[in-house]
Design a protein that fits this description.
seven-stranded mixed β-sheet; single chain; four-stranded antiparallel β-sheet; 0% helix; mainly beta; 11 strands
Length: 119
């Protein structure tokens, strides 16, 4: 059983930057690929970015490509989502999630952290 805790959200102005952290406990962190999702009010939860367990590959949604950067430190059991040039449309609750390397399903989820970007 893995527990995930997000932090780093907040209220910022358009153009600002934030770094979200996803700290894991209770499992072998390198057994999991990690994804970041976000959900705006009234909308579906969408995948924003994901990172391979070894950091060998990353994926970014088109809406954040070039502005968001994922990294992970397996020694610290933490994944970071660096967000720059934030836009009002980035406003959402951001969740990190973990899936086993052999599965496509995310099975462990954090509680979410709110990001609000004001214009």
């Amino acid at each position: 059983q893995v527990q995930l805790v997000e932090s780093g959200g907040g209220f910022v102005q358009a153009g600002d930057s934030l770094r979200l952290s996803c700290a894991a406990s209770g499992g072998t962190f390198s057994n999991y690929h990690i994804g970041w999702f976000r959900q705006a009010p009234g909308k579906d939860r969408d995948l924003v970015a994901r990172i391979h367990w070894s950091s060998a590959s990353t994926y970014y949604a088109d809406s954040v490509k070039g502005r968001f950067t994922l990294s992970r430190d397996n020694a610290k059991n933490t994944v970071y989502l660096q967000m720059k040039d934030l836009k009002p449309e980035d406003t959402a609750v951001y969740y990190c999630a973990a899936r086993f390397t052999y599965s496509a399903n995310y099975v462990y989820w954090g509680q979410g952290t709110q990001v609000t970007v004001s214009s």
